[in-house]
Amino acid sequence: MAQGILSGLTVIDLTQNVAGPFCSQVLGDLGATVIKVERPGSGDDTRAWSPPSVGRHSSTFLALNRNKSSICVDIDSIEGRKLIADLVATADIFIHSMKPGSAERRGLGWDDLRKINPKLVYSAISAFGSSGPLSSLPGYDPLMQAFTGVMSTTGNEGEDPVRVGVSLIDMGTGMWAAIGILSSLLARVGTGEGANVEASLLDTGVGWMSVFVSSFGASGEVPRKMGSAMAMTAPYELFTAADGSVFIAAGNDRLFAKVCGGLGALALSEDPRFKTNPERVHHRHELHAELSRLVRTRPVAEVVACLRAAGAPCSEMNTVDKMLTHPQIEAAGIVRPLPVADCADHRVVALPVKIGGARGARFEQPPELGADTDSILARLGYDPKQVAALRASGAIA
User: Fold this and answer.
1) HEC states along 36-48?
2) pTM of the full predicted structure?
3) Fold that domain 2-208+335-393 belongs to in CATH
4) Superfamily of domain 236-320
């Protein structure tokens, strides 16, 4: 069900880097036909984001571009823009990640394309959004982590802020765009009309800061870096064990009692300093010291086993290699093989959602640059002479 839920829908994808390609990959995983439009000669920037690479492919490009075909079009040429219009005429979804105003100057804005196809769901992904003094500026994930304050809350107190390693703003923006697109497709069933979906890195970054914004409004205190800890509850952080680290999370008094029981120190749950969450937050340093004393001489596996047996939320601190070999990851079935040239055992992360109890099973290799240009043009009705003329003019490659 998951792999065919969008079957029959066509996506014209003029995005690159991370946010847009992640969005279109989600749609492709769900069964949509995704036509990736790339610059002649170089294509998506992430094709060159290496090392690391898998054979001749950038690992970043491989992670974000499965289940797509590739056509090379110069959208700055008159012929190229005409070709995009031909693609849009029979498409369902159009996605781009050009700076606000760039698509419009090329005749590829929402108002332009809906005249060609009133049923088109149009999605523009940008850095700062379509309005405001910074709207014309480019942006990348770490830049937006800094601008929206995400980076200011990440790291250890007294040390420089650090970037969240995962491109959570880029990928989150891709998710919001996909949600907006899917919602618009649902609405189209009733209205018969398309919609203009906007997503920006700015909105996503501010969205991820929702709890911090609310906390600041309530207390007037600027949220600060707390390492692995959390301001509003304790314990909710990493603890150093004899051979690694364990994250312990007690989101309420009942769970804190289970933490204490699992560590063989039930009396701590009755200590007046720690009996309620507000008291634990107030005395977080003393609490951390008490729990550290119970954890630091014991192996990670022992601590985790005791806490889980007691029903206390916890986790060993895994690196990527350890995470990938954990039996739970195998049972989840979220990491799947995607053989590519020069690497028969390459693996990728599947769509992180199940529909009807199953994940999408569609796993087609990311496309070679421009590999599908001729076949896509043939489907549009271009004959070989017209294709040759377009190639000679530089409109396609």
Assistant:
1) EEECCCCCCHHHH
2) 0.93
3) Rossmann fold (3.40.50)
4) formyl-coa transferase, domain 3 (3.30.1540.10)
